Fold this sequence. Notes:
Chain A is mainly alpha-helical. In chain A, 47% of the residues lie in helices and 11% in strands.
Amino acid sequence: xxxxxxxxxxxxxxxxxxxxxxxxxxxxxxxxxxxxxxxxxxxxxxxxxxxxxxxxxxxxxxxxxxxxxxxxxxxxxxxxxxxxxxxxxxxxxxxxxxxxxxxxxxxxxxxxxxxxxxxxxxxxxxxxxxxxxxxxxxxxxxxxxxxxxxxxxxxxxxxxxxxxxxxxxxxxxxxxxxxxxxxxxxxxxxxx
Amino acid sequence: xxxxxxxxxxxxxxxxxxxxxxxxxxxxxxxxxxxxxxxxxxxxxxxxxxxxxxxxxxxxxxxxxxxxxxxxxxxxxxxxxxxxxxxxxxxxxxxxxxxxxxxxxxxxxxxxxxxxxxxxxxxxxxxxxxxxxxxxxxxxxxxxxxxxxxxxxxxxxxxxxxxxxxxxxxxxxxxxxxxxxxxxxxxxxxxx
DNA sequence: TTTGTATAGTATCGAATCGAAACTAATTTT
DNA sequence: AAAATTAGTTTCGATTCGATACTATACAAA
Lengths: 192, 192
């Protein structure tokens, strides 16, 4: 009898989907809905220039209206604060309040992130590579902005004594280097 | 200056989430809602004994009520048919109609599955391994049934001249060997 | 058999989600 | 300066979705 070694692409896609859905916090446990959780996590992960209403809308593939509503609800709950942007008076940078950060840490068990963290370093690195490839593939057909962090972004200018994003001209502090950026454009594969 | 090579676990989780959300068919394009698409795909992927209302509820991490509604809507649209189970009068096996299959094939562009298919064989295999590991990790804490296909299931009895699932006693035809099973229990890691 | 419990699925209702569209205000382009 | 973009908000209504309660079948035990 023949032995099947590999999952089909369709099965894998379904399993990924299942993983994501099954690890979303249930209903409004603890008072937050899934969408609110997603937004809170995003604010905790994205870098300064991406931590905006539009940034979340892109990340979560929802309309700006929906994004606006959710952020508002988080602000009302004092989990997130708005810091008016100095460069653009229309925009505000979203930051976690200490209470928001606590909430996020408290919920960190049993999430997909925890499972990924538990992978071996080698596995996690390979996983990261594949995810990056998938993001690249899906970029063109959907015309979406890529999500990624600065380390493989063509906007990163590490020439000076401090790393700089040549798109915004802003200096990149340590935490921002690791954070997710909604304007990410990977090196060597073109785009924009 | 230090160079960052790896994404953090949190970033990876967020990217996976983004991949899934961004590849869901938009709104009710073509008349199907995201939930309906998900259900249609599931019916197209799952094996005989898993192709049920409950199976979909498990897969999609929704309530049985919601699952029941969605399936009903697909039946009303003649995309899915119910075949009463012979072993269990309460249950019905769901099957794609030819129109359902067509709809599914037509939408297959730009999905996550397509992107995964485009990976190199090596990448896809590695990806599969990691996904399987993640599913295992998330199994215990959530107490959920594992999703997987027969090739690494402890219920598979390949001893005779035809492979058999020793849980249901049913013979496994070719397509079912590859399909997703909602009763999957992986070899060598225990469980159930 | 009967009784009890678990499971497959359906129906209903109300709250929450979510997107579309129309809008304001600031920014950039021509 | 006018026109076109972009960030974000608001309102409204359709849809989703889960909780709960329900029916019917299956299975287990006495």
